Amino acid sequence: xxxxxxxxxxxxxxxxxxxxxxxxxxxxxxxxxxxxxxxxxxxxxxxxxxxxxxxxxxxxxxxxxxxxxxxxxxxxxxxxxxxxxxxxxxxxxxxxxxxxxxxxxxxxxxxxxxxxxxxxxxxxxxxxxxxxxxxxxxxxxxxxxxxxxxxxxxxxxxxxxxxxxxxxxxxxxxxxxxxxxxxxxxxxxxxxxxxxxxxxxxxxxxxxxxxxxxxxxxxxxxxxxxxxxxxxxxxxxxxxxxxxxxxxxxxxxxxxxxxxxxxxxxxxxxxxxxxxxxxxxxxxxxxxxxxxxxxxxxxxxxxxxxxxxxxxxxxxxxxxxxxxxxxxxxxxxxxxxxxxxxxxxxxxxxxxxxxxxxxxxxxxxxxxxxxxx
Length: 373
Hints:
The structure is a single chain. The protein is α/β, with parallel strands linked by helices. It is built from 12 helices and 18 strands. It has helices spanning about 10-15, 25-40, 130-150, 165-175, 190-205, 215-220, 255-260, 270-280, 285-290, 295-300, 315-320, 340-360, and strands at about 5-10, 40-45, 55, 75-85, 90-95, 110-115, 125-130, 155-160, 180-185, 205-210, 220-225, 235, 245-250, 250-255, 265, 315, 335, 360-365.
């Protein structure tokens, strides 16, 4: 007789009941993740343990009529990780993405998370993960705001008014203790207006919509960029305030000085090094760089305008106190984040623990006794 195995399943509404939208708690969990990254108590994909994941991309044409073809933001991806510390668990985020989903009443990406016992591989839980992913993505600039923004920062510029920046601003709001106003820019002014209304009604802070990118950026003591990957922004150095914190959660290009005259802090240096390895393997580094958030700094490193990646500071080292963060009120800081599976696994684990305590979710049977035992 083999071992009975079951696991719990959480729908999206059940993840909400279990606290997935608790931005302040998520910031704390992601800060723990950064500490573990800095300590080395984690594993991600690939032999270097630092790959973002594995992505299946589609061909531009195919002789097979049913094979999916390439399109805007179209891919499948698996992002596995082990997270140590109090989490001590393995997991994987699996998702499909297609920009055309909007015409079908769906979000761009459809995601699920799976947690597994680190030793046996048995599933512990499976859950809807769109809100998991958004929350952890938003919590990262929340952590950066906690450690890198000036404490007297009053104005936050929101560049890109979609669901990802909504999660970012929910987290940033918990860390900007003196915030007085959000300036909301989007290519579509109606989206900026709706975002400003949400900030006023849900976060209780004054907000205005803007159709002027330069003006919106120039007002921000903290600037959160999470705009469309299909139309990367171009930033001019003169727009940035002295002492500001610019956070790239989405891609942006800009004048060289935006990058060379800022103190650059990375989410995780080894992840960025893995991106460069993949870019070299692709045979077209510049094309690869154009598709990742840290692309502009990689190009500047290749040109000798920035130091090698291993000379950069990761935010986990700042959290642990082994490297300095902001060193003056006037210093301009640029934070670059590309997303990692360790965040998803850590936040999923906490939602799973909340669900167990509250009796939320549906228990599903894997087997009473495995046929292959």
